[in-house]
Amino acid sequence: MIFALALWAVAAAEPDWLVRIHTVPPEIGASLLLKVADRDLPKRADLVEEAFRLGGQARMRWPEFAAVSPDSMEARRVEASFEQLDALNLQARAVEAMLRIQPRRALEMALEMAMPSPRQAGCSTATLPDLGRLYGVALQMGMRGFPLKMRAEGRHMDYLLRVLGASATAAHLAAAAPMVALYDGPEEEKTALISALAFSMRGARASPREAPLLDRIREAVARLAGLPGGEALAEAMKSLEASVLEAEPCPDQAGFLLWGSGTGAALREAVAAFRRSAGGGERELQFAALLGRIESWRGERETPAMAHFHMKALLLRDLLEMAPTEASLAAVISSYVRFLGASPAKTESPAEWVVHFRRLLLPLAPLGRKSVDLAVAEIRRSGDPLMNLLADAHSGGYF
User: Fold this and answer.
1) Which residue pairs, CB below 8 angstroms and at least 24 apart, start in 322-328?
2) Do the Cβ atoms of 179 and 166 come closer than 8 Å?
3) Contact 73, 304 (CB under 8 A)
4) Cα separation of 141 and 154, whole Å?
5) Cβ distance 141 to 185 under 8 Å?
6) Across residues 304-322, what is the average pLDDT?
7) 56-94 pLDDT, tens per residue?
8) Considering Cα of 40, then 42, then 45, then 49, what sign does the dihedral take?
């Protein structure tokens, strides 16, 4: 109730859509709140506080990266990571925002952040966690987030050592090692952190799929080599590298390829053929027929639901850029809006859904800004609460 009143107080100034923030998936609400809080508005600490709470409910727990085919379903999750709609990024952004408003509360929020607990990646794993934001927050708090009295009591070191003690996987260590390398404090504190890092590293193992993570650790360890404790850290690094060499190598490719076969592959080729074809009087009819084929595609039995979602969305996105007339563009925009509005991905995988929705609100040749107006008008007709809220946020520069 208190937060609702605060929202009304802010919305009395700008923006007026803020009162609808709890009608959308929590990660989208958290991201919008943080963008609003960037402006000097009343009660912005309340907005950041609520963003922190909502961010903790995000479906994607942390950003991901991978060296896989760009045509894989996993590559779509990596693309979605750039939206920063995962719990780790959202809560880290909230802590950093609060640090500029109420430093003591920012520290409390940082201490409340849960340590990510990804599983060790195996050969069937196609993406890897990127946990750097958590350790970036820990570094900021450890260096300047604790009041002088708490620093004198060593509370900042207790916090940093606890974070390092919970760093149990290669994904953790790939972020923990750079944190220790960047820590700029007294020599005895740096030595304690190096020793804690070495202890955690000696107890960790890595799979061949996690070899890219070892590159990050190795670089940080090299920077610490000449400091007290550096030799023990280098030995721990050798042990971690040995665990990779002792394991069976992984196949070159992991993940689900989107366009391997079936109707999706045939539609992709049809879109490519239309792109290559010369203009003519029949082009608008050909475009309409192609749009009809894509609209009617329901996926194959062996195709995961999210793979079908991404493929169909990508096909419609291609048509947005190829429409031969304004009427054709309006038709594909209408289809795209209906498809996104009806997709379960809207609530089940909001970060991946947003990547495709964002394309609607970008100017399209040859109409430019008018294409955005067409998209917004179609969104208004759809009545979809989430898409309408995002359209409102976009018009105010928040999305």
Assistant:
1) 322/271, 322/274, 322/275, 322/287, 323/287, 323/364, 324/279, 324/283, 324/284, 324/287, 325/284, 326/367, 326/370, 326/374, 327/284, 328/284, 328/287, 328/288, 328/291
2) no
3) yes
4) 13
5) no
6) 94
7) 999 999 999 986 778 888 899 999 999 999 999 999 999
8) negative
pLDDT for residue 341: 97
Furthest CA-CA distance within the chain: 80
Phi, psi at 339, each rounded to 5°: -65, -50
Q: Is 129 helix (H, G, I), strand (E, B) or coil?
A: strand
Cβ atoms within 10 Å of 83's Cβ, excluding its own: 20
What is the reported pLDDT for 9? 46
Give me the DSSP letters along 35-57. HHHTS--TTHHHHHHHHHHHHTT
The length of the chain, given as a count of residues = 399
> Cα dihedral sign for 66, 71, 77, 82?
positive
pTM summary value: 0.90
Distance from CA of residue 282 to its chain's centroid?
A: 42
Whether residue 125 sits in one domain with residue 16: no
pLDDT, position 72 = 87
Domain boundary residue, one of 257, 291, 318: 257
- Strand-pairing partners, residue 64, are 129
Q: Are residues 309 and 277 in the same domain?
A: yes
- Indicate the number of domains in the chain: 3
